[in-house]
Amino acid sequence: MLTKDSFLLMGEKGLGNPRSRVAHAMAWFRDQLYLGVTNPRGDSPKDAARILRFDPGTMEWNQVWISPLVDADARSRARDVYRGNRFKEHRLNHLPVTETVPRHRGIRCMSLYQHANKSESVLYIGTLSQFGASLLMTTDGSEFLTLPPPIPDCLDATILSYRSMVAFAGKLFVAPTGLVDSQIMDRNFGDGPRLFVTDNPLSGVWHSALPSDFGDAGDRSIFSLAVFAGYLYASTGNPDRGFYLWRTQAEGDPPFQWEMVLSDGAWRYNLNETAATMAVFGGSLYIGSGLPGLGYDKANDVGPAAFELLRVFEDNSWDLVAGTPRFTSDGFKVPLSKMGPGFDDPFNSVVWSMTEHNGCLYVGTHQWEPFYVALKGGPVMRGGFELWGTGDGENWVRIVSEGLHDHYQTGLRSQLSTPLGLIMGTSNHQEIERRWLHFDRSTSAGGFQVWLGLDEL
Amino acid sequence: MTEPLAGERGDRAPLIILCPPRSFSSVVCGMLGQHPQLYGLPEVNLFTADRLAGVLEAHRTRPHGLHGLLRALAQLHEGVQHEDSVERASEWVERRKHWSSRQVFDHICELTHPRIPVDKSPRTVMRTEFMQRAAKIFADASYLHLTRHPRSTCVSTLSLLERNEEWGGTAKAGRIDPERIWYSAHQNIMNFSNKLREGQSMRLKGEVLLSDPKCFLPQIAEWLGLRKDAQAIEAMLQPEQSPFACFGPDNAKYGNDPNYLNDPVLRLVKVREPNLDEPLEWAQDRSFLPATRKLAKLFGYR
Description:
Chain A is mainly β. Chain A has 5 helices and 34 strands.
C-alpha cells in the first residue's frame, strides 16, 4: 500500500493557469495521461476548459485542447444555486464580464470506448458549460471533435455537464448532471434522471436507457455509473429520499430493464443524498456518498453530514463500511471499519474519488475544515484533502491528510491507476487563504495539483 | 440506600424509548418488554425530576401521569394490580418522597432483575434536562429513538386531546400546536443523542417496525446483545401479554396509551405513511413548516 512518502508532484498551480482549480477527469489513452481541467467560473477567457496531456517519455505536460470562446451573455454569470436561494430572485454577480467567455469551462468525465470492428479505443469526453454541455472525442489525442448532442436541441442548452460516462455491453452510456439557465446554475441536480445510450456515438443516434417510469419522484439526476459483475450500475441523486442504486444488464433495445439495488440512501435517507463515487474492489462494488458544499446542501436544506462508504455484492446484499449504525430491511448494519461518517471526521463531506491500484482500494475525500478555520477566524490553518487506503476493504489507513502539505487543496477530485502509478488530481480553494488572512485579491495564487503515487519510491 | 455509581449497573442499564407522545411507544414498549430478557414498564416518568417529591409535584395537575409508576410498583411488589396493591404502592411512594429518582429506578431495576427494564415515558423528551438526567443516572443506558410521521402523530395527538377530560387532563386540543410538540421533542432527542457514543442511540421509524416486526425486532435484540431466537421474537409479537397491556384498577387506570390499553393485540399490517405536502388537517391554510419537513425527511418521511 502507498504511504504518505510515496508521492511525487507531477504538476501544480493549475498547470499554467492558477485559475484552474479542479483536476476533474483523467484517462490513460495511447500510453499517455489525459487530464480534463475545470475552472470555477466561466466569466473570463482565462476560464476556458482545457485538456492536458502528460507524456511519460518526455515527462512533459502539453495542452492538447482548449475551449473556444463565445460572446458573453447572462449565462456566463449564472448564480450557483448552492450560494443562494433558488426560489428567490437572484442578484447578478458583480464581477466584470468580458466580451468573450469560454464555451466550456470544464471537463467533468472521460471514458474509453471501442467501436465495433475497431481495434483501438476512442477517448470520449464530457464537458461542463454555462451554455450547455457537449461531448468531445478524439482518436489520436491531438484532434478533438465535438459530437452531436445525445439529447434534443431544446434541452441541450440547459445541461450543465456530463458527469458520468461508461462503456458497457458494447455501448456507450452518458449521464447529464446539473442544470443552467440565465439565472441559476445547479452543479448536481436537474429536473430528473437522464441516461443516454448509443452503440455508435459518431452517428448522433442516442436513446434513453431509462424507461419513462424509472426511479423515485425525488430523483434529480443520474449521479454516477459503474460496471460490476456483468451489470451497469447507476445511482440517482435525490435530496428528498437519498440516493437510489439501480442495475441493468442492458439486454435488448433501450430503454432497458432495471433492478433496484438500494433505496433511501441505504436507509440513511437524504443524508446520503448522492452516491458520488463507485469503484470495484475485491468482489464488491464500493459506494461513497456525499453532500455538496461544506457538507450541507444549502439549496435543498439537507445536512450537514459527512460521507458514508458502503459496498454491495453481486447478490444485492450490502455492507456498511464506514458510517452510522442502523436498522434496515436488510438487517442490522454496523460499520465494518469501526468508523463513523467521514472516517470519523465530520469535515470529510464527500468521497470524491475512489480506485483500485495494485491490490489496494484508495478513497480520496473532500475535507472542508480549511473553510471552517477561515470562517471562524481560527489561529492555525488545518485540514485539506485526505487519502485513505485498504487492502481488505474493512481495515482502513489514512495515508495522506492536510492536503498533502497544502491545506487549500481541499479535495482529491480524481484518481487513476496507471502503469506509471496512482495519479491523483486535486481541487484547490486558495481563496480560503485570502479570506482567512484578509489578503488582497491579487496576492492569492492557487490552482490544482497532480500527484503520482509510486509503490516503491 | 446507598446509590451505586453510574456505570456500576452495567448489565441492568435500561433501554429507554425516546419519542414524542403518540409515536407507537406503548405498543413498541409492550412488544420489547415481552422479550425474555427485557421488562416493559408503563410510563413511570421518573426522569422528570431529581427527587420523587419533584416527580409527584410535576404531576400534581395531571395525576394520571403517575398511574404508570403506581402500576409498575404494585405489579413488581405484589405481582398483581388491584386497588389495594396500588394503594400500598401509593403509600410506598409517599414514604419515599425524599428518595432520588435514581434510587427509585434502582429499586425497579432490582425488582425486574435479571430482566432489563424498558422505559417509555414520553415526558422524558419534553426537556433536554430530563434526558440528561437519564444519562446521568444510567451512563450505559441504550436509547431507541422512535419516530412516526408528523402528520399522523399530530392527528393522533389532537384526537387524544379531545378525550383529555376522561383521564383528568387539562390541556385543550384547540390550544395545542401538535407540530411544535413533534418538532421540539425530536429536536431535543437529536440534540441529546448526538452527544452519546456511536451506537448508544438508534433511530427507527415506528411504521416500519410495526409493518414488519419479524424483520426489525431481531435487529433490536442484536443491537442490545440479547437473544434473537424464534422463541424470543415470537414472545415480542404478543404485547397483549404484558401486565400493563390493559386498564388498571380505578385508582391507577392508565399508564399507557388508552387506545393500546383498549386493544393491545398486534396486527401485522403495513402501517401507512401519509405525506408532508398536503395542507394540515388542523390548519388547512398551511402545510408543515420547513424545519419540520427537514427533520421529517431526515427520518425518512416524504
